[in-house]
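Researcher: Go.
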Amino acid sequence: MGKVYSLLGLQWGDEGKGKVVDHISKDISAAVRYQGGHNAGHTLIVNNEAIVFHLLPSAICHENIKCFLGRGVVVSLDALFEEIGDASRIIDNIETKLVVSPACSLIQPYHIKLDQLRERSHSSTTIGTTGRGIGTTYEDRVGRRGIRAIDLFNETNLHDKLKEALDYYNFLFSNSFKEEPIDFHQIYEKNLMQAEQLKPLIGNVSNEIKNLIDEGKSVLFEGAQGALLDVSLGTYPFVTSSNVIGGISSGVGISPTAIDYSLGIAKAYTTRVGEGPFPTELNDEIGKFLAEKGGEVGATTGRKRRCGWLDAILLKHAVYLSGVDGICLTKIDVLDGLDTINVCTGYESKLPVEDILESMNLEHLEPIYTHFKGWDEPTYGLNKFEDLNKIAQDYIFAIEDMCGVPIVMISTGPKREDTIIRNLF
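Model: Structure:
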């Protein structure tokens, strides 16, 4: 009998979800993206060749797995078609394995333009977005002026909706930013052209997923970004534009009770791309060590990731909010060779921790650390828990105690085989 799994990052993204999806995909029939857009970045090694997925579910590189983009995903058709073309050099028949919901909102050129103008403007808060139009597209969804995939197949509706949206955006460009307006006919014709390429991919995602579940097939829901970037529960306003936690039901169209097991991904330390508070950030030699050894460069943007110690307060909070049953701890090998490893177990603040987590205002917090002895014997490449040295094992046990859930997988390197499995599922 199949099961329904969810997989999401428990920090600020970049936890290594791609490799974990790749590892467990042999046991599933379908993989689903339910939120976000091409601001995600999942790096996989396929046939000794690196490939980065921004929009496609990572499991698409496996044979006999059907992949879906649910209605909660905002889709750049330029990015989708480019990614399909790039992945086709090492993956066969992508178009026959991919289904896109007709209810997906589409990222238009005016979304990207406004996103980038805001980031450059001194009159608005710079939050470090990818500048790819994700947030502005979600704004249009809430503002009820969005263009959805289904609109491309009705020329009259598309014409009217695009005109209304572009009137709004061109007013902003001209009056707020003193920028040239965008030509309506150019965008309209491009949408019609892309409709022909998109049409074979469109399908009833929620119904197909429901049927797979009813047939006893295993389904995996892949979250993009990380729990601390959730628009409602993260470090607002320095967040993404969608619900990472609990977004499956609305982002696909299934019952929230359908999930059998939730696996959370967390690094053995913490990283963050872009702006926003980061209590355990290390602006010293150890921070540089983690960044260099961990190869901490954003897969989507190429920006360097900020690095710091593991924050057990935030990790435990994300575990609770996400309903996580088990954790995959990644990049423990990056800690090899450190004399001391610190874990944040409290904050110096006049406010109780519970109040800090309610607002997620993490500015100006001084972390309180629990200190752990480092280990000399490398963990890199190990695939059996008993082969880890006792000090590394004790570090893992301590994180389990702090978070209240078991660590069921441990990644010890970038390759698929560099993985320790402990009672997974």
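Model: Residues 4-100+202-261 form a domain with the Adenylosuccinate Synthetase; Chain A, domain 1 fold (CATH 3.40.440.10).
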